[in-house]
Amino acid sequence: MRRRVLAVQNVSRMCVVCGQDNAWSLKARFYELEGGELLAIFAPLQEHQGFPGRLHGGIASTLLDETIGRAINILHPDTWGVTVELTVRFRKPIPLDHEVHALARITRDSSRLFEGSGEIVLADGTVAVTSSGKFMKAPIDKITDGDFAEQWFPDPLDAPDAVDV
Q1: Distance separating alpha carbons of residues 134 and 82, to the nearest angstrom
Q2: How far apart are CA 81 and CA 108, in angstroms?
Q3: Which domains does the chain carry?
Q4: pLDDT value of residue 164
Q5: 52, 103, 152, 153 - which has most CB atoms within 10 Å?
Q6: How far, in Å, CA of 107 to CA of 44, rounded?
Q7: Strand (E) positions, 9-148?
Q8: Please, what's the b/e burial string for 61-91 (b: 16 or more CB within 10 A of its CB; e: otherwise)?
Q9: Contacts with 76 (C-beta within 8 Å, 6 or more apart), sequence order
């Protein structure tokens, strides 16, 4: 299904998921979609495999954790999520020869916590991995000791007008 991209979320320098200067980063991109969902896209490398030709389950879990945790920024741009609990269910292997798409949304939002769900969807539309989690809301100065403003910046790539999900 074709979905309109409403905004592109920032990336960072050293994050393991979106870090542009981190050689080991997934270099994922995050797109806010119509309907209040967040889409993460990354191109897996051979170094991301568990079994030959298959994405490692820990990488899939990491991508879903980040995508669900970032989805709160659609509703509250200055709110950050700290993972409290994450449940992941693996249904199908994820091949390394296609972009990986993780889709997430917020399912419950309270004053201190939020909950969300997400899935990794294969190129044919099959759901390969599902996830749900609880996250504590926190301002960035309570999460990091460093100067976050130097690490966090607009994604330098042009955003697509729409994506297939």
Answers
A1: 9
A2: 13
A3: 2-164 (3.10.129.10)
A4: 87
A5: 103
A6: 28
A7: 11-12, 29-33, 37-42, 80-90, 100-109, 113-121, 127-138
A8: bbbbbbbbbbbbbbeeeeebbeeeebebeee
A9: 137
**What's the pLDDT tens digit per position in 30-78?**
999 999 999 999 999 999 999 999 999 999 999 999 999 999 999 999 8
Per-residue tokens: 50: 């568990």
Cβ atoms of residues 130 and 91 within 8 Å: yes
What is the rounded CA–CA span in Å between residue 100 and residue 89? 16
**Where are the alpha helices (H) located in the chain, listed in sequence order?**
57-75, 148-151
* Cβ atoms of residues 11 and 153 within 8 Å: yes
User: What does the block give as tokens for 121?
Assistant: 């969807």
